[in-house]
Amino acid sequence: MAELNLNRVEMPRQDPVVRSGNFLEVALGYREEEALAEAARCIQCPKHPCTGGCPVGVDIPEFINALRNGHTAEAARILKKKNKLPGICGRVCPQETQCEKSCVLFRRGAPVAIGRLERYVADWERRLGTGDVPQKLPSTGKKVAVVGSGPAGLTCAADLAVAGHEITIFEALHLPGGVLIYGIPEFRLPGAVIEHEVNYIKALGVEIRLDWVVGNTTAVDELFAQGYHAVFLGTGAGLPMFLNVPGESFSGIYSANEFLTRINLMHAGEPGYDTPLPMGKHVAVIGGGNVAMDAARCALRAGAEHVSIVYRRTQAEAPTRAEELENALEEGVDFRALTNPIRFLANARGWVSAMECLKMELGEPDAKGRRRPVSVPGSNFIINVDTVVIALGTTPNPLVPATTPSLATHPEGTIVVDGNGRTTKPRVWAGGDAATGAATVISAMGAGRTAAASINAFLNTPNDWEGPPSSI
Fold first, then answer.
1. 3-class secondary structure, 316
2. CATH level 3 topology of 143-238+397-459
3. Is residue 101 packed enough to be buried (19+ CB in 10 Å), middle (13-18) or exposed (0-12)?
4. What is the rounded CA–CA span in Å between residue 420 and residue 442?
5. C-alpha–C-alpha distance, residues 371 and 368, integer Å
6. Which of 218, 274, 342, 388 is most buried per CB count within 10 Å?
7. 426, 425, 423: which is closest to 434 by C-alpha?
């Protein structure tokens, strides 16, 4: 047996000083020789634990084996049997806690860089303009409405289209992609990659109707009246959470959703665009997840002189991906740990000027195993800021549940589903962040696949397709 190579091939990145001043992609991707060298590290173990760690079940050793044997087109075909968005997943999915964590090499050294190889294959196919659309099954005559064009909706739509059903996606925004397009900056996920993979979904025969707000433009029950036999709700979690402390409504305080949407969809802060984004020079981003890192790094690129991540735990407890924290620190973002804002102050114009904070210390672990932050009495202090971005997470927008009778939700607003994505309303399924709360792209895709399989089985069983929905 050949000696194990426990050191992964590093992926080139833009220099931190250069990249902090532009919105171009930070990670540059493997070159061919680098991809082949990394693929050669895979030992092709017989039990394939990495596949078990993938929420959509990609046959990882098979696609890597095809790649290292020079069959890159075949590698792409294998990937897209289970994952219709490989260029996206290769960039933003947390492989380090999923497939790569299950890699046999992880026990002794660095796991195979599965995500980087996935990205390489997807980019190779996009660059060369190759890629075959899979053969679809004969038309079933059944129609499915998919609400939302994020990762859950796109995946569900693709699987159902291949199964022979007529699929229409209803998207509230003017561009498809959901959180992929409004929530993730260009320097992490270029719009060209999203557009390419959305076009692949369209090539399967999926229609996408933009600027269409289900729950307002059309209610779910009206979709059934229009002839749809089933509905999938992939509406995401776009309602921001706040601190609920005094002064949070002052000017200059943004939710991360608004801040990132202005930058990602409207190009605020970029030369040549007139979209306003009133922002000062001293920016504080409250939170420790990927969204907080995205907002902080965007603020730098939009012209801020000093950007701080303000987090009530330490870097070790931050839920962000390690590489995103590393990138942010390299670019000059300051990390203020064990700090919790309790009040915002403003100038005479009502614009935020400072925030009063408490020092924190770590106590006993909480339900998720992270040590709970506890305030230090009398430790109040002031941080001068002129812009604040609140990045504490999101919950589902209540519009669709509020306009859909018989659709049950949990107290936090997520839609109640069973293990197959079925809701309490007949002929309605849901998945992704709408059902789980804010999570990962790949977990949303897994939910979309699960729901698609359930919908397909339902549509292929004898039913009375006329009249109102019957119980499932």
1. helix
2. FAD/NAD(P)-binding domain (3.50.50)
3. middle
4. 17
5. 9
6. 388
7. 423
Is the whole model's pTM more than 0.85, yes or no? Answer: yes
Same fold, 143-238+397-459 and 242-392: yes
Amino acid letter for position 235: T
- The residue type found at 185 is P
What letter represents residue 283's amino acid?
V
Q: Euclidean distance between the first and final Cα of the chain, in Å?
A: 54
Angle at 157 between CA 153 and CA 162, to 5 degrees: 155
Domain residue ranges in the chain? 16-128, 143-238+397-459, 242-392
pLDDT, tens only, 312-352: 999 999 999 999 999 999 999 999 999 999 999 999 999 99
Structure tokens at 247: 């002064």
The topology (CATH level 3) of 16-128 is Fumarate Reductase Iron-sulfur Protein; Chain B, domain 2 (1.10.1060)
Cα 362 to Cα 168: distance, rounded to the nearest angstrom: 49
Encode burial over 337-366: b for 16+ CB neighbours within 10 A, e otherwise: bbbbbebbebeeeeebbbbbbbbbebeeee
Tokens standing for residue 330: 């390299």
